[in-house]
Amino acid sequence: MTGLTHFDAEGAAHMVDVSAKADSKRVAVATGWVKMSTETLAIIESGTAAKGDVIGVARLAGIMGAKRTSDLIPLCHPLPIAKVAVELEADDALPGLRVTATVATTGKTGVEMEALTAVSTACLTVYDMAKAVQKDMEIGGLRLLSKTGGKSGDWKAPAP
Amino acid sequence: MTGLTHFDAEGAAHMVDVSAKADSKRVAVATGWVKMSTETLAIIESGTAAKGDVIGVARLAGIMGAKRTSDLIPLCHPLPIAKVAVELEADDALPGLRVTATVATTGKTGVEMEALTAVSTACLTVYDMAKAVQKDMEIGGLRLLSKTGGKSGDWKAPAP
Amino acid sequence: MTGLTHFDAEGAAHMVDVSAKADSKRVAVATGWVKMSTETLAIIESGTAAKGDVIGVARLAGIMGAKRTSDLIPLCHPLPIAKVAVELEADDALPGLRVTATVATTGKTGVEMEALTAVSTACLTVYDMAKAVQKDMEIGGLRLLSKTGGKSGDWKAPAP
Amino acid sequence: MTGLTHFDAEGAAHMVDVSAKADSKRVAVATGWVKMSTETLAIIESGTAAKGDVIGVARLAGIMGAKRTSDLIPLCHPLPIAKVAVELEADDALPGLRVTATVATTGKTGVEMEALTAVSTACLTVYDMAKAVQKDMEIGGLRLLSKTGGKSGDWKAPAP
Amino acid sequence: MTGLTHFDAEGAAHMVDVSAKADSKRVAVATGWVKMSTETLAIIESGTAAKGDVIGVARLAGIMGAKRTSDLIPLCHPLPIAKVAVELEADDALPGLRVTATVATTGKTGVEMEALTAVSTACLTVYDMAKAVQKDMEIGGLRLLSKTGGKSGDWKAPAP
Amino acid sequence: MTGLTHFDAEGAAHMVDVSAKADSKRVAVATGWVKMSTETLAIIESGTAAKGDVIGVARLAGIMGAKRTSDLIPLCHPLPIAKVAVELEADDALPGLRVTATVATTGKTGVEMEALTAVSTACLTVYDMAKAVQKDMEIGGLRLLSKTGGKSGDWKAPAP
């Protein structure tokens, strides 16, 4: 047994049967960052305060991206997403933007992929909007912070 | 002037006018990785050889993800994508999988976002398929390697 | 407090958490119209009776549009829509077509946006199909007629 | 002859053949409004200045909606949209928000439907975000202001 | 009465109201085939074993296609799909590939269309991947094998 | 060499590079049928004439389905479709409905898959609308009739 539940006994990919699972409240939190130069970060921060709201656009893209998760990830179940919140904050030490997404549902499977897709889409949108001033930004640190609910129980990421 | 071309003079987000640009061949290459334990990597590698083709599924998800780029990234132009290739290879030193995507078009804007979205979608799909055995995998190193074509000319990432 | 529930305390847009709400039957009815010349209306009416069913195409577009609501409206929850009906009828006094959409679900949030999106998509489709004969048609009167169900209770539009 | 080009000689709906048309620059401008109480407008205006950027969210929704036009309108051709700009401004006399969208392409058919869909989606999004404070807002005045380019030439709306 | 439930008493198409139905477990199984030359089948079979996994790609396309059913079929309800499995096997007697899809949900309507759409999408994908070597392949035998659950009860296809 | 162009030399699936191909007019015609009982066909035919236009709904679904082809078929290029026509006609000998779709583009690749997807979506929609009266309908005979244009030249199906 490989433990890869997305494949059946013959190794064929399938969407796992969750029809017998009970609906329960599930929450997942994921994070990631976009690393950039101090100059690019300053442009984004000044823009947000006045003109050119990179952070507002990226937040909305992340929220909408969460709703497209089952379209993008082949074996992901479509889910009635009940909440999406995406935060972006400047981190001068990175330097860059740190993104955190929280997704909740009352359903039969978890929303880990929805939270990760929200973060990823928000980071890609930041890259898109700032690439005219810096092309060598890097997206990284994309990982699950926690999940709660469901049969497998709660999980919290170890300190990085 | 902030240099953020996705905002107009009043700071309002817009999709930049490219109608006067000539169609030209454009190629972009992006990369990224999924870091995991040696055990998870071994499961994926054995699965690909025999049963449970994680890499094949992730490659296809990356290709299809490139086609959804303008749906996901708010200010991205829809483009007639002419080529998408996504490579995944195991790297024991990471340990994990390294992903590289090459996207080409003959169009009025570049395909940097399509290449980055392909890599990001492939990485997320790897995470989805292996999360039953390891939840603390990390996605990172997502960046543009090169772009060619278009008025702004060719660009190559500096050595990391 | 602004009362705008789609923003959190810091003013950031978010998709409101409805995971704690109970599933209940909810119905929304919306209306709108396309105003056109008497000649255009006559063409549409004769077409529907014989050849060129503008009303049939617009009705179907409205039904399918309701299913795309959460894709289009950034902070709208995806919902398992249980019913969509779209009616179009000629109004010689307008002159033009009046559109009414009824949407129902058993879910955690209302279907006001689904009903309004159905009407809007049907009206846009009428415009598309008749614009070869008249470009200065106008779409208007798009508003909610009633909603029932949910914690906030029933609501009925005041007489216009 | 009815003049309804979206139907063939037998009255069957079809997507008109534009393959023989030359690519040319085409621009369309459309407008519409959301009528609301003075109180709701004040909340939106104060929100935009400080917290809760209804106008920013609606603008982005309008831009993204333009890209979904051929998904929503059954007989509309998919087009490589080259530009989308959506403006929203408060009008105390309405009272409410006036929305204007400008869409451009270099293609074989016009972008009237894309401009109208952008306005419609932005208006629906305003409704969604403000409906917690006022349910009887009305969307109207949705019409084409002008189109340029293409074989049928330029067109400008008569004064309303 | 025609018995066509997708039309109301006036003959207008509508999405049938299922809001009063109870959620129950429902399963549907559908099948179909792609007929091809012995040579084409041999190429596909050798490819799957070594290079060029036509069957793996088609299986994934079928699974993802099931999730797009309510986007494609106008009057189909969106459903929280709980399971999709798609099998493809070579049949030397056909000669060609036989496809079977099983879809499950816990919902208010059946998943017959989802199972048929999965089979259809998998067959079309096989055609796409092999059309460079044979253009006159044929897709056929697409039918429902069984459905279980729901008020109308279980159904099993008669022997063909 | 297998001749399967959707795989590279290592057997990995990719979207073939068409960026160097010239834009040219391309047309594809595909066909298929839905076999049903004489009673079901009679219901559909009477419905179309008076109430319940199954054929009109299926035609529109086929046209819209053609536009979703590159979303559904993993390695299919997105294309600016220039024309879609879908015909359905009753065949008492089948008995059932015969569907023919014609798709045209001016682009870098052919529209065979778009024509086949249009037929398939129209057939599935007929099944959906009539399944309340007959569940054992069968979809078959889905094949390419002809293609013209492109480097590989014209092709016409042999007589069946």
Polypeptide structure, described:
The structure is a homohexamer of 160-residue chains. With 160 residues, the first copy, chain A, is α+β, with helices and mostly antiparallel strands. Chain A has one domain: Molybdopterin cofactor biosynthesis C (MoaC) domain (Alpha-Beta Plaits, 2-Layer Sandwich), CATH 3.30.70. Chain A is 31% helix and 30% strand. The first copy, chain A, contains 4 helices and 5 strands. In chain A, strands 2-3-1-4-5 form a 5-stranded antiparallel beta sheet. The two termini of chain A are 29 Å apart. At the A-B interface, helix 1, helix 2, helix 4 and strand 4 of A face helix 1, helix 2, helix 4 and strand 4 of B.
Assembly of the depicted chains: homohexamer
CATH topology of chain A: Alpha-Beta Plaits
Class from secondary-structure proportions of chain A: alpha+beta
In helices, the fraction of residues of chain A equals 25-40%
The beta-strand count of chain A equals 5
Whole-number tally of structural domains of chain A: 1
Report the principal-axis shape of chain A.
elongated
- In CATH, the homologous superfamily of chain A goes by the name Molybdopterin cofactor biosynthesis C (MoaC) domain
* Rg value of chain A: 17 Å
β-strand percent of chain A reads 25-35%
Mean pLDDT of chain A: 92
